[in-house]
User: What shape does this take?
Amino acid sequence: MTVNTALEKSGYIMRKRSHHEAAAPLRMLYKPGGMLEKHLEEKKGAHGVIYVHIPYCSRTCSFCNLRRSAGLAPEGYVDMLIKEIKQYAGLQYIKDSTYGAVYFGGGTPTVLKADDLRRLLRALKQDLPVDEDAEITIETSVSNLTEEKIQVFGEEGVNRFSVGVQTFSDAGRSILGRKGSYSFVSSKIGKLLKQGFDNVGIDLIYNYPGQTEEELIKDIETIKNLDISGFSFYSLIIHKGSRLGEQLTQGDLANDMEKYYFNSIYDAFIGTGYSLLELTKIVKGQRDSYRYIKIRYMNGDTLPIGAGAGGKLGNLHFMNPIDWAGYSKKVKDGLIAVRAMETDTFYECIYRLIGSIQFGFPEFTAHGFSEYSHVLAGLNKNWLNRGLIEPDPKGYRLTKEGVYWGNNMASDLAQALVDSLLNRHLAK
Assistant: This one.
């Protein structure tokens, strides 16, 4: 079977698989911004989201080498999180802000004890200006989602779940280092839905080593039968330093079915009661709006809580230390010691344009920066000719080919605008 025939028309060869790669050119626009607390004294509050990072897992997936570690959170980690929350709560900037979504990511946030999760959820809502109807998301594995924790989430207002299933195939789950069989996983998700949580989504990984077409079809059928709100779908990224990366040879990776499997997933869902919410997310009806990511791409603030959490307040970007010693020192020293990087409105303009691609409806107007209109016009023409976009009542929309290559397109847009900015500066 030939699976790469579409590459020639698209003009791309190597697919960028994550939004982090898409936004990489924007790093050139960062400049030293000084001390966070002092700068915030001069700024007004904003609308945004809160990201809480729990970089711990009871078991590390075979493909993972990210900002997390195996094992339970250190003793006192939740106390440190609550202390950090209270530090932010004392800033006038934060008091003047509003937060429309809270996202618990990791790692696996549900490695925390039920009582600690309750304390943390209450601290966020009591000490920070979280909207009454805020979207509150918990990332979780199936094995860490106990009845006691589900009860806590129901009582404390959690209304969105992202369950790290990856695949329902028993063989695939073994390859990816996941615990629990097909029957255990599907039963746990079904129980979560029956208990009144309507917005339950999963992560699905495709194109993992040895995956068969039959296994993918079973994943698709299971998603439909479970009646979940949606799912994120990712082609497996084998990270350098991961267990899977060390085990596999080039021969193991040669049978690349990435494009074929992507098309199979897309065709099975789009137009059958499901729609594309963003490049890697398909939702059923209107059950999931993913407010967290929408606010971020509208240049809303991201208040980062926890070891390894990164975010921005206003135009100040910063990241907490990932190691326990560094993070606990940062919290003990207080916000006065936090250094930030600074960006300007041109960065915000590009970031919003990247967001328009992520959500499938690319925009080609650089509001406030008309001198760059020719760059966007050139991209528009180029992408139309390559079949990556098509006219739509909203303006333009990504074709299926454009969705597949969306992160490449976002990266090209960002790089073209950054290069144009730098060339203008050099010409002066």
Observations:
- The CA atoms of residues 275 and 332 lie 46 Å apart.
- Confidence is low (pLDDT under 50) at residues 1-7, 250-255.
- The first strand starts at residue 31 and ends at 35.
